[in-house]
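Trying the structure run again after the queue cleared.
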Amino acid sequence: MADSTFMPSTSVPVALTRKSLYSLQFFGRLVQSDGSNRLSVVPGAEQSGDREGHDLFDQTMLCYLLYWFSKQKLGRTRLNLLCIGEFPGIERFRGLGRLSVEQLGTLSGTWHVVERQELDLGKAYWEAFTSSDPRQLAQLLQEDSSALPFARNAFRYHLSRFPSVQDGLGNVERATLEFIARGLNQPMELFRQVSDELHEFGMGDLQFWLILKQMASGPQPLIHFDGAEAAIPSYTDRSEDVRHRRILLTDAGRRVQDGKEDWVAVNGIECWLGGVHLRGKERVWRWDEKEESIVRSE
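Done. Tokens:
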């Protein structure tokens, strides 16, 4: 590699040289080089809010990186990984981005060289996550994941986003209904409470607004916004309108929460979870919490 620029792929925005240390974001995560043909993959190093290096968001990005690198000829390039789930003195560790400069300094040199088993497991998780058949991921969760200690729990949370066999709700929708039923109906505070309750997802506010939009849509919506129809923020519309509305349960929302109706059965579903396209009312992939398995409804 000498002093030339190292460009892994035009699809991966990482440029590294022997002369300089580059710290570049890759989908919100850091890939570093110390100028010695060594790359350090640091999940959660550049983040904001409640991101965690061991949550679903970060583990998904990490597995993509490992998948990509597993397909490259690395030559003399050596990969290093720093991924922790706790830090001394912090009761609830919320990711590297929450540490001070001094605290981060104590982690220097604690990363380890990425071995073939980590590359292979990351590749397997990414392929299972993007598969159109979620049973591939469910099966992988039953196998040894010790090479990536946070992956199993993170991707189990991904499967819990699928509609439940009990009520047709995913974990995020269920938690949202529960908080609204307790009287929490201000959108921003609702987001804070739900994302804190389900912090293993690493959910951002735009993700949550999309879920609220889905919950407020269809012939039998679960929730509605008081007043005129609310403009829900998206990647292309940063409207602040929804922040000033109250969110209320509909009659259908109460029936679903009480276990009297199944949301998918009465409203259908239209969304993507990883590589799975969920749509319609029948033959929809569902999560069985008790059996920890994915099944297809008839």
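The chain has ten helices and eleven strands. Worth checking whether this holds up in the mutant runs.
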